[in-house]
Amino acid sequence: MDLRRFLKGLQSIVGEQNVVYHSDDLLVFEYDGSVDRGMPEAVVFPSSTQEVSRVITLARKEGVPVVGRGTGTGLSGGAIAPPGGIQVAFPRMNHILEVDTENRLALVEPGVINLDLDTHVRKFGLRYAPDPSSQKACSLGGNIAENAGGPHCLAYGTTTNHVLSMEVVLEDGTVVNLGSLARETVGYDLRGVFTGSEGTFGIATKIAVRLLPVPEAVCTFLGIFPDVESACTAVSAVIEHGIVPAALEMIDALTIQAVQKVSDAGYPDDAGAVLLIELEGLQDEVDEIGEEVEAALWEAGATQVRTAEAAEERELLWVGRKGALGALGSIAPNYFLVDGVVPRTQLAKVLAKVADVSRKFNIPIANVFHAGDGNLHPCLLFDERQPGALDKIVEAGTEVLQVCVDAGGTLTGEHGVGLEKKGQMPLVFSEDDMAAMVLVRDAFAPDNSLNPGKIFPDDQSHTPHAQPVYPGMAA
Amino acid sequence: MESSLGDQLARLLGVTAVLPGDGHEIDGLTPQAVVRPADRLQVSEVLRWASSEHVTLLPRGGGTRTGLGNVPRKADVVLDLGALDKLVDYQPADMTATVEAGVTLESLQEQLASGGEFVPLEATLPCRSTVGGILSVGSGGPLSYAYGLPREWLIGIGVVTPQGVATKAGGKVVKNVTGYDLNKLYTGSLGTLGVIVEASFKLLPIDPNDGALLASFSSLDDSIAAGRKLLHSPAAPMGCHSVTSGISRRLQDSLQAASQDLGPGEEETALSFAFFSGRAQATGRRLEEATALLLAEGATTVQRIEGSAAKGMLRWVTDVPSEVNPNSTLVIKISVQSRFAARASAECGEVLLFGEKPEQMADPGFGSVRMFWPEPAESPARGTEAEQPIVDAVQKARQIAHRYEGAAVVEQCPLSVKRQIDIWGDAPDSLAVMRRIKDRFDPLGILNPGRFLGGI
């Protein structure tokens, strides 16, 4: 391929200023939120579906793999370009096209930021429920690729439960519509299987999402516990009361120390765990269930319980949780975030085993997680600059995932497999299971030219493009 | 001489696993045999055999929806999954359960109730409807507005491929993005891609209090409009339904048979149903506010129903299709954006078939309208003379659905009409991708050939 000619071709589609290819400019596109790296040949900023289609068509003609990129907040290397590949990013396709309050849906372009959509629709008494921790920065297109979750997915489900339809560009440049604005649609649920396909089926260029009404009342409870075990007991007690809170989050002692170093979230220094519970609904049920939640927290051994109903006060209770990952920077320069999921009842046991891994490898592990749905987020803390540190981290991370799988769980709850965990797929799925998955990719993208080298192990017979080992990738 | 398919299956699984196909006719085709594997391994054996012999299989759960789908291209053997009826794993504290595909919805709910939980699947005839069948059809019921479709609750699946290979996707945890979400692909695929043998679900706690409101209106339009208002109020129910007078008369009859009284009902009234659940106080408040709202919106009467009677009412509404279908010539379900449900319903109400308007059941929250055109008083001449008006009515309903960017699925019609149409309607622009998926999963076309959209 003649790179100069190819770049010229891209420029003629999207305009000269909308193709980035100088190595200095490309540096920020080399990584996402994970530890993987990969330099794209170019990054293209299209402004319309037609431009996306033409870019993909040209790239395919030249044999260049294409990766859709949201805002690079992903945590599994999903948006990292394969060697010789280009990225298509959406800062120009960032418009909220329509908010239909009667039907409670919004039509958006893929570059719209998650929180911007939510903030916008709240003016109409509506909300967009999936709220990944990166919601201030992450885009809806990326949310679809990864089937993003968030704290409030406990009650409302993940991205897939909120996407109605999508316009997508396929590998051959054709534009098709998946799903429909009606909630029930005919044929295979292509919208469902596309969501979470990590950019390997196509690139979404227009997205219709469901909106939910803002509840009448919201109440947040913060419980401080002497240790993780007692906080886990509280989680079980709440669930046993037949309560499904809107959110149920936990942070452990190491995270609490980090949070307290950078901001005063009001946690006692010797706290062993903090549990956050949010209830939503009619005032009557929030009051009634709230009493039960509070009682359950005390009974499980909470040393303090705080509650807040007003928005600003609730925000204060959430400060520690929302700022937790950033605060870890006060302890170590890098973290490797493992996204394993386990059945809720296994939480305490699995956390104890994670602590064993921490001791075995002598790696500090901070836990910040979605306790309600058993989605752990052990953060393995390290310093990338120390020789061999990354290898050790990846080995320890794999061991943590093995612990999750052994407990009846799985590799990833909301971050995706991407580059990071593709080597671990056989921990959960057989060759036959993966072969069935690859059949679907073959139907959407027979040449596997969209985001190749992700999700499936390199030796998977159906994966024609070999992927060189990036730093941080499990062998 | 080659032995019959029944004999071959009997050699494979034993004579007790095979029945003659007589009496199991599907769209005019009589299968040569019905085979009932005892477990998943036997399902694999049957599929391997069918693949090597190019025998077409029609998977069946409880057989409550076998009429759904186009006329099969070929129907050699019915694959009855009813013997796969075990609850594999249930952990109340995890709020998840794993079951075999042949478990009936009723039996599953009974077992989950012991843990104070339920799975939000809905189906007519739950004593016969199986988990696998419900997933294959992929449809919901009266509470779809709140619970969505089965796709929202399925977290893991076990599927035997047409080649007989056991595969799985998803898992037993409530949040999972490991690998492609094939749960979504198999749900609603009408058994055309593989045979579902196992499913894992996330569950919900049973709410302690159920309540329902039954309101009468002078017209279906008024009833739907009031339902829309109610759904957008703080007292929003879990689901809201409007039915025409013909269906409400059936309710009165069945309640009278159960010696319950519906109160003073006019002959020509439409009814609105609204279903609520939750904690006692909140449910009470919702019922109170909703009653006031419905009266303000023109309801002539509003009756409050609580506890087991509310459950019974929900059961009755869920079963309306199985009650009304036997007396209908044509049944069509339209799915549109919810705000268009009222208009689609009003326009469809004017589509006459043999001079009769359809009875209707509308869900103004989820955006679906079911229309039942009654059998004509005098049976019309046979042949094309009788078929053409039905085909025309289907066309008109489709045009209305398209006007509102929705779909119209023909759920029931005479076989002679079915042979002329695609019951799923016009194919979307993604049909080529759907065909490629089918070709890759089932290249020999042995599973339910021809029954799905576009002849898939």
Present the secondary structure layout.
The complex is a heterodimer of chains A (475) and B (456).
Chain A: H1 3-14, E1 19-20, H2 23-26, E2 42-44, H3 49-61, E3 66-69, E4 86-89, E5 96-100, E6 105-108, H4 114-122, E7 126-127, H5 140-146, H6 153-156, E8 163-169, E9 175-179, H7 190-194, E10 203-210, E11 212-213, E12 217-225, H8 228-240, E13 247-252, H9 253-262, E14 273-281, H10 283-299, E15 304-308, H11 311-322, H12 324-327, E16 334-337, H13 347-361, E17 365-369, E18 378-382, H14 389-406, H15 431-444
Parallel strand pairs in A: 2-4, 3-4
Antiparallel strand pairs in A: 1-2, 5-6, 6-10, 7-11, 8-9, 8-10, 12-14, 12-15, 13-14, 13-17, 16-18, 17-18
Helix pairs in contact in A: 1-3, 8-10, 13-14
Chain B: H1 5-13, E1 18-20, E2 33-35, H2 40-53, E3 57-60, E4 77-80, E5 87-91, E6 96-100, H3 105-113, E7 117-118, H4 131-137, H5 144-147, E8 154-160, E9 166-170, H6 182-186, E10 195-202, E11 204-205, E12 209-217, H7 220-231, E13 239-243, H8 245-257, E14 270-278, H9 280-296, E15 301-306, H10 308-318, H11 320-324, E16 328-335, H12 341-348, E17 359-363, E18 368-374, H13 384-403, E19 407-412, H14 415-418, H15 431-441
Helix pairs in contact in B: 7-12
